[in-house]
Protein: histone deacetylase
Organism: Ogataea polymorpha
Amino acid sequence: MLSTPAASPHLIWPTRILFAMSLIAISPEEHCLLTARNEELAGTPAASIAARCSFTPAPGFRTLPTTTSSIKLASILSFARSPETSFMSSSSELASLNLPLPPLVSAVLGQSLDAVDLLPSNEGRQSLVQQLMKGYGLLDHAKMQLLAPRPASVDDLAKFHDRDYAVELLRPRNWKEHENELSQLQRTILKRRATRESRDDRRAQAQAPCASYGLVFDCPIFPHMDEYCSVVAGGSVQAAEFLINNPTVAINWGGGRHHAHKSHAAGFCYVNDAVLAILRLRRKYSRIMYIDFDLHHGDGVANAFKLSNNVLTVSVHRADAGFFPGTGLKPVDGLGRGTGYEINIPTKKGLCDASLEWIVAHIVVPKIEGYRPQCLVIQCGADGLCTDTEFREWNLTISRFGTMVYQLVRRTGIPSLLLGGGGYNSLETCKLWCYITGLILGEECQAWAQLPDDLDDELVDFRELEFWTHDTPRNMAEQNTHEYLLCLQSAILGC
Ligand SMILES: [Zn+2]
């Protein structure tokens, strides 16, 4: 990665060139010359360009070999050259780039994750993503290594969560007995809505242990919740450990529960595996960047590192009066040493692929350039897809959202931990995650047609036969105007 460039408007373009070049992994011995197709830089050694730009490339800096194909060079330069040019390439360009594959990708998967299927808001989703990945041959891929999660203990959860809360989450319960309690609670809630219980009754309920830990409403206690919390947290921590030992790409699609707080559950999230994974990564990395693409603000993670300048959190989310969780409105936030290290990108309704790509190219990537993280943790919540059944707020497609995440990982070349998150159309969510995994493994995912034959009937509507059937934006207005995005950029980057 590059050192911070000197601030000068004249240097912006070469800086972007250098950054773009640094994103491409080329063997070090391929000595550099930028050739052809670029009049200004043709034949100029990278060191000269760097000198002109008044900054020093870091030791890992590599430049393009003379043999770089014209399409590859054109693609890189088009990214580097014009602020109007999308960060993205078309999938055909991507294929032609022929970037080296990461030596190893790990995914936390396996039968031991059955408990993840029990999460009430995403029933069966873990099995479905696993079946899709298996059906497209990703689990048997030569570069894929599967990890069975090592369940997290109370001590493990207490690295972030309050111990009392961790004990409550992992407390063994007689589930049969508790199911009765649950249905009683549901009856109580319904009754209260109908008859407006007395204030005293509500106070009594608020004092119950479950309510004080947020284990009510959208975070009810559910059968085998202890096992669920243990494997979700353990899975992300284990993926983080893999990344420490193999700085490539690690995945836990069952993770990304970004709303869980230190001592209470919120927004379908019980245990904050993202925070626990980042804490584990901190053992090796001193600068970690968390990037959250879920429809909702990644409040639990942002709050956890609000005081830290070792973890830069960036959350792109929908924000509006009354929209959960109601935070993440201030573009630049943080406290104490962490001031400026919490970035929020609150969006309006209708965010489309092109707008998200612009945000990534013109806000997120410059933050990467400036912060120079040693590791990325990317939350790939899928509730912003145009097909989401619970939320009809954003308008993203699998092909472009997935490609954007892939490019962020591959072009930065930074070790990355990918996590799941929201997503309430299970099949479309699992397709997105399967697609990202396939791209990272170098598969021709655009060619996927039929869904695999052996998907569980209970998880998939038997009429669903094709992978790309629903990959078309819905008819909705994009309220995030270019002017609005420029305002956000200006507030965050000060330009
Ligand atoms: Zn969400």
Remarks:
- The chain has three domains: 9-85, 105-165+221-493, 174-212.
